[in-house]
Amino acid sequence: GAGVSQSPSNKVTEKGKDVELRCDPISGHTALYWYRQSLGQGLEFLIYFQGNSAPDKSGLPSDRFSAERTGGSVSTLTIQRTQQEDSAVYLCASSKGASRETQYFGPGTRLLVL
Amino acid sequence: GESVGLHLPTLSVQEGDNSIINCAYSNSASDYFIWYKQESGKGPQFIIDIRSNMDKRQGQRVTVLLNKTVKHLSLQIAATQPGDSAVYFCAENGNSNSGYALNFGKGTSLLVTP
User: Fold this and answer.
1) Any idea which fold A5-113 has?
2) pLDDT of B4 over the 60 cut
3) What are the φ/ψ torsions at residue B84 (nearest 5 degrees)?
4) Do A107 and B36 touch (CB under 8 A)?
5) Domain B10-113 CATH superfamily
6) Where are the domains of chain B?
7) Model confidence pLDDT, tens digit, residues A41-58
8) Which one of B36, B46, B99 has the shortest CB-CB distance to A100?
9) Which terminus has fewer CB within 10 Å in chain B: N or C?
């Protein structure tokens, strides 16, 4: 079946511009996560959505980062006024929703801020 | 000037040998553990998981061992193949209040030589 998809696969932007990254979770998965992976590093949790509940934003590094999930499916991660340190791979994952369920990852969006 | 690189722990094995990748965690509240495989340019791929009420779980060619006493997790890959070459991450949920967000290790690079 279809897995998690993300777009764009690559994004190059100039410092100070805003970017939007999109995630389509696996159909039927109620939980959606965003992680960030810097070069050669492990994954850093950013934000978590579960159904219609308020998202867990505890991992967002600054108020320049925000995310939405419309209709309980597609999610958009927005980074405003991008900085060079925002350059990383942004990974989206989804799961069936219950705690301790397997998270399945998309291919990621590689963001480069010049 | 001197350049600083990011060095992942690397395990080099010969094709056909068994591989053991180790991971230590620090939070005694962690009760769910996952191993992911990440190939270059791709998102993490689920391999196997284990809950804290177990100390061993087997999959196809892979075994995960959990030692809660010393907070240690290992992934064993039998008859390692060139396609197993990748970065392997362990992850656990101990740092999340809800048990949803995963805390990832830095990763171990596995290189399989013919």
Assistant:
1) Immunoglobulin-like (2.60.40)
2) no
3) -80, -10
4) no
5) Immunoglobulins (2.60.40.10)
6) 10-113
7) 789 999 999 888 888 898
8) B99
9) N
